[in-house]
């Protein structure tokens, strides 16, 4: 017997969708490959989510999301979705623990930061290596930090970090930023921001936490070591849509294309959170997506 609603992904978007779906009386199942919470669950402190004036640990917030969804009857299955079949009235998800079917499906599988892929990056993740200035910037008050990237996100985050850090160095592999002119001007006018042009990070070093970076000049090929207290990496995101190959309309970067009600190109299939094509990716926007997608799915099911 198929479920009413199947949700792929147990981050803020997926868990909010589960809450709304289950509370609306739908037989709701969430498929999550790891611990609930997604990227938010890996954040040490979230200080910009409404309702928690003192901030909250990311995993703690994620568990609250999960508890609330489960309170209304949503079920969370820990498994990895390998592929899907979305055409037809009954949608199918094939996982390592079997096949799940439902009359409607919400894809909330999220996205992951594109890594630098250098030694030390994984070792110091959460101990000086960050992919979110809004999440972690306050932990680097009066510290020297590096920002890797040259687009709008990198420059915006560098400007944000000047609220806390004593010095912010933008490291870019080219000799000019790709960010919009206005952002470039703001960065150049900020006395806390400096630039390392034609430079890439080749190694992240430290003991208990990040203490220095190995930098390479891409023109001369020379390397040097420079002291930094942290490194923020903004070279793009990669959507978790590998299991959707050929099953759904994606944009040129692999994100799911949605309409205003978060419906996709296939009836009964919706998308929410970081996995869909949109401008802003925060916990609060993911939660909003989850609510909209669930209500749209409920309306779709009522019309069947």
Structural topology:
Layout: E1 3-8, H1 12-23, E2 28-32, H2 58-71, E3 75-78, E4 81-85, E5 91-95, E6 98-107, E7 111-113, E8 129-130, H3 133-136, E9 144-148, H4 152-161, E10 167-171, H5 181-189, E11 193-196, E12 199-206, E13 210-217, E14 223-227, E15 230-233, E16 237-239, E17 269-271, H6 283-302
Parallel strand pairs: 1-2, 1-6, 2-3, 6-17, 8-15, 9-10, 9-15, 10-11
Antiparallel strand pairs: 4-5, 5-6, 7-16, 12-13, 13-14
Helix pairs in contact: 1-2, 1-6, 4-5
Based on the structure given, which CATH architecture of the largest domain is correct?
3-Layer(bba) Sandwich
Strand count, sense and barrel status of the largest sheet are:
7 strands, mixed
- The rough form would be described as elongated
SSE-based structural type: alpha/beta
Kindly give the count of domains.
2
How far the N terminus sits from the C terminus, by CA atoms, comes to 16 Å
Structure summary, number of beta strands: 17
What is the CATH fold-level name of the largest domain? Answer: FAD/NAD(P)-binding domain
Q: What is the CA-atom radius of gyration, in angstroms?
A: 21 Å
Instruction: Estimate what percentage of residues fall within beta strands.
Output: 25-35%
Order of helices and strands: EHEHEEEEEEHEHEHEEEEEEEH
Q: What is the CATH superfamily of the largest domain?
A: FAD/NAD(P)-binding domain
Mean pLDDT: 93
What percent of residues adopt helix (DSSP H or I)?
Answer: 10-25%
SS element count, helices: 6
Point out poorly predicted stretches: none
In the CATH scheme, the class of the largest domain would be: Alpha Beta
């Amino acid at each position: 017997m198929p479920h009413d609603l199947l949700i792929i992904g147990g981050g803020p978007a997926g868990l909010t969708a589960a809450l709304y779906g289950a509370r609306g009386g739908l037989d709701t199942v969430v498929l999550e490959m790891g611990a609930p919470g997604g990227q938010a669950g890996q954040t040490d402190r979230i200080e910009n989510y409404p309702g928690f004036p003192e901030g909250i640990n990311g995993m703690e917030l994620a568990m609250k999301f999960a508890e609330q969804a489960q309170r209304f009857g949503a079920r969370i299955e820990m498994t990895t979705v390998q592929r899907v079949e979305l055409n037809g009235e009954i949608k199918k998800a094939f996982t390592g623990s079997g096949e799940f079917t439902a009359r409607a499906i919400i894809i909330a599988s999220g996205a992951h930061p594109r890594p630098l892929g250098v030694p030390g990056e994984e070792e110091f993740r959460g101990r000086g290596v960050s992919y979110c200035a809004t999440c972690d910037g306050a932990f680097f008050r009066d510290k020297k930090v590096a920002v890797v990237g040259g687009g709008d996100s990198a420059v915006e985050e560098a400007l944000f970090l000047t609220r806390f850090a004593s010095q912010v160095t933008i490291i870019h592999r080219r000799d000019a930023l790709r960010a919009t002119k206005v952002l470039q001007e703001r960065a150049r006018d900020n006395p806390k921001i400096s630039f390392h042009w034609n430079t890439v990070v080749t190694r992240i070093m430290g003991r208990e936490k990040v203490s220095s970076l190995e930098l390479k000049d891409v023109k001369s090929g020379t390397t040097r070591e420079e002291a930094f207290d942290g490194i923020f990496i903004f070279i793009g995101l990669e959507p978790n849509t590998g299991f959707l190959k050929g099953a759904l309309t994606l944009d040129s970067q692999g994100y799911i294309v949605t309409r205003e009600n978060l419906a996709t190109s296939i009836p009964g299939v919706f998308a929410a959170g970081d996995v869909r094509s949109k401008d802003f990716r925060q916990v609060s926007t993911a939660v909003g997506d989850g609510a909209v997608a669930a209500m749209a799915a409920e309306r779709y099911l009522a019309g069947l």
